[in-house]
Design a protein that fits this description.
The chain is an all-alpha fold. It contains 19 helices and no strands. The radius of gyration is 23 Å and the shape is globular.
Length: 498
């Protein structure tokens, strides 16, 4: 058995690589707007990041991460040297100046990505590792199921948390930031305390900590969405959602690997402390983000805003919100089983395919926003539907394990692009007077599609097989095309950027 200190050291070693990787990826949108050196940095932090990550886990390519650091720091040093030569002034920008506004925007974008990165870690633990943790204490599956059901309750409350945030200026410090800080504090405290309680002997205390963690996440997740709607101009909505979707996917890839390593060595407390550390870092970032303590009149809570739910375009959009996850999540959920049972790929390799899916989703986080900004809302939704339908069809027709590496990667990209576009459009439909509430409703509607799609996928596989199931879900994506045209005929579309 590997000693605990070795496992901890390996985790620190991986974080030493992953934190700069993450910082480089988050800097790509800002760097891409610069000169040639900055664009080269952006390419290094996006396209060249993939071989560096591969080298981190495959010994034959272990030189690649070090080469990546050499290129990144060399280009970064040259860029800073050139910038210093062009702008020798050291005077701080005045509040309200373009530089000050740019700094505030960068802080907000960083917070949005960081929040979803933490959320990805929490969801990874809840969905995959909590059962394993409780089984290590020999708890029954029935009791574990009760834990899972109870910890879902705070997520059901997200709609009401959004309404509270829209309506109540907490401690007169704002409608979003205080809730985000409170949620992060609750979650961080819970994950620090969870290892102190033995679920066998102190089940009530353990369950309380889990509920607090879920409540904290529901609070900061909902109010971060509200803050993103309050502060993000239309041109940046795709970028914001790309960072959120990509941040959560990147977190799932990284933290799942680390959690697997910790759990295999029996070092369960390291999982909880890792999530707590991520929460603390995000908490520090949240304190630096500025929010107006009083809202503008047009953003003040009003009951009249609920009339937006009578809008026919919104109602059709909510219907799309049921259809898209029904087909998308159900297909995604069956990919692993198809690779293993349909193509006889070993489970160990299936894990690598799953990681590649996540990397495809991360890539969308980098380019999905700029693509949406270029093509406009309607064309982006249509493209998301067509790309996802095409990839799902090809997934059904591909029988080669080698070719499936490419298909799974493309499916991950299509998955992320679809989510980026849909969530960005959800921001546009949200009335600023009840933004957090409306957006949480839009997100909640998707759960009905997921709930209906999972049993449908299972029934289709049992009766027809994997390939017909994928084809049927691809057709469902295509059937969603006509409602999209109607949505944008009823609602004036925002044109693409020239």
């Amino acid at each position: 058995m590997t000693p605990g200190w070795v496992i901890a050291w390996k985790a620190v070693q991986h974080l030493n690589y992953w934190l700069p990787f993450l910082a480089a990826a988050l800097a790509v949108p800002a760097l891409w707007k610069g000169g040639k050196l900055e664009k080269a940095l952006a390419l290094t932090g996006s396209i060249l990041l993939l071989p560096a990550v591969i080298g981190l886990y495959f010994p034959d390519f272990s030189l690649l991460p070090n080469l990546w650091f050499l290129v990144w720091f060399a280009l970064g040093a040259l860029s800073l040297w050139r910038s210093a030569g062009k702008n020798p002034s050291r005077h701080a920008p005045e509040r309200g100046s373009p530089m000050s506004d740019s700094k505030a925007r960068l802080l907000r974008l960083s917070l949005f990505a960081a929040v979803y990165f933490v959320e990805g870690a929490v969801l990874t633990y809840f969905s995959a590792f909590n059962v394993l943790y409780l089984r290590s204490f020999e708890l029954s599956f029935s009791l574990i199921g009760i834990v899972g059901g109870i910890t879902l309750l705070p997520f059901i409350l997200k709609i009401f948390i959004g309404l509270l945030s829209d309506r109540v200026n907490l401690f007169k410090q704002g409608h979003r930031k205080p809730y985000i800080i409170l949620g992060l504090l609750l979650q961080t405290l819970a994950f620090i305390l969870i290892p102190q309680f033995n679920p066998n002997l102190q089940f009530g205390a353990y369950l309380t900590m889990m509920i607090l963690a879920a409540l904290g996440m529901s609070t900061y997740d909902t109010t971060t969405d509200g803050l993103s709607i309050d502060t993000t101009p239309q041109k940046d909505r795709g970028l914001v959602q790309g960072l959120m979707v990509g941040g959560r996917a990147l977190s799932a890839v990284i933290t799942a690997a680390l959690m697997g390593m910790f759990s295999e060595g029996g070092q369960w407390p390291l999982i909880f402390y890792m999530i707590a550390a991520l929460g603390l870092l995000t908490l520090v970032l949240a304190f630096f983000v500025q929010e107006k303590k009083e809202r503008a009149p047009e953003m003040q809570f009003s009951k009249a805003a609920f009339g937006a739910f009578k809008d026919k375009a919104l109602l059709l959009f909510l219907a799309l919100g049921v259809i898209y996850p029904l087909a998308l999540y159900s297909s995604q959920g069956m990919v692993g089983a198809y690779l293993n049972e349909g193509l006889s790929i070993p489970l160990g390799m299936v894990g690598l395919y799953t990681s590649l899916f996540g990397i495809g989703t991360v890539l969308d986080g980098l380019v999905g926003g700029p693509l949406m900004r270029k093509f406009g809302e309607r064309n982006s939704v249509l493209a998301a539907l067509l790309i996802t339908a095409a990839v799902t069809f090809v997934l059904a027709l591909t029988g080669s394990a080698a070719l499936m590496w490419v298909i799974v990667f493309l499916f991950g990209f299509a998955f992320g692009y679809y989510e980026t576009v849909y969530f960005a459009l959800g921001m546009a439909f949200s009335d600023p007077r009840i933004a957090a509430f409306m957006f949480s409703v839009i997100m909640a509607v998707g759960n009905f599609g997921i709930a209906g799609g999972q049993p449908l996928a299972g029934a289709l596989v049992d009766s027809l097989g994997f390939q017909p199931m994928f084809m049927i879900f691809a057709v469902i994506h295509l059937l969603a095309l006509p409602p999209v045209f109607v949505i944008f005929r009823l609602r004036k579309p925002v044109p693409a950027e020239a």
